[in-house]
Amino acid sequence: MSATTYANKNATCVSMTSTSGDYKTGNGPTGSYLNKTSTVFAPNDWHNSNAIMSTTAVRQQNGSLEIRQAARQLRNDTDSLTDWGQHDNTTRLHDRMQDTTAWKEKLEQTITDTDVEIALLTNHKERCETALQNMNTPFEVAQENLSTRSIRVSIDLVEDEVSQELTREVEVINGIKEKLKQKVNEAFQQVCALQDAYNAMCDDLADKMHSLDVDQQCHGLTNQSANIGFHKNATRIAKDIVLPDAWDSHSNYNTQRANSEIRASTALREMINNTIEQTANDLEAQRLRTEYAFRKRIHEVQMAKDELEWQQRNTKREIDVLMDDIRGLKQAIADKNKPLEVAETRSENRTYRPRVELCRDAPHDGLIEEKNLLQKTVSNLVDKHNTADDALNQLKQTINRIDEDIAIKSDSLELDETCMTKRQKLLLVSHKV
Asked: Which one of 183, 199, 208, 227 is most buried, by most CB atoms within 10 A?
């Protein structure tokens, strides 16, 4: 008989006994008694019941043992799996923190390099701006020189080598200003690019530091931590989550961008240095050419003035001598009047000789010849006086022109020397900043 059948039969028997048997029960001191009729079993049933109970107990004990062993194995396996899972994720967090720390250090170094480069480029930009500002004085001096020399007059208002060099100097300065302005603009744009890269890395670094704080806190959590608990939908995937490659590429892009801007800035700083040096050399070379032309022109004008002054002295001396000769000619002409009067008086008196004495003798012919000679001499002297007087007038006109030209040359010399004095300010301006 099976245990189940026996159990069912036993239950039936018990039920029958409970309903049909007589029981004696007490309820308090005055309990009532009921009579119960019990079912009687055979000895085999009793032995079978014991055997079934024993077999069932053994079988259930064995099943329980298997369950206990499986449960212990499962518990051990799940404990190990749980421990290893927690350990693996702790290791992953540690590795992640190392990766984040590596990027953090690289970002910090690149940020430092970028900050240094921004300072260097800003310094070069300021040097370029200073060099550009320093162009104001040479430009003003060149323009003032051209304006000063424009008031020259007459023949000295000439497009000479000085004017050409001054015009070229203005062109050189304007060209230099354009080059420096271009470099200032390029430096400004490059500083902005560096600043953008710097800001992007600072934002990335701030995110890295925040992520490190979160991961460090997570790395430090254990089963005994106080601030742990269940969270609703804790393993949800955020909509803006990125993959590790994208995470790595983001920081890599930021650092590579910054390094690229640093290289561009370094090249630009070199170009700014070259531009400042080259423009300073160009300006200095042009200054020397212009001032050489000034000195050469001053020497030429001084030589011309000296020549005119020498001619002035000679002309004045010639005028004095010629005036003395003119006075001598006048005196000579005046001196011929008396001899002519004598000759004419003699001729006139001899016309009154009587009759045959009125002879064309040698005195008669001699007086006629003397008169003619005196008249011719006076005529020659008058002609020579007129010629000398014309020469005197020409000399006086020449001396007037010489005096005027000397005054013009003196003014031109004064103007050029004034220009040279004003150009001394150029020596006080430093073009190499």
From this structure: 183
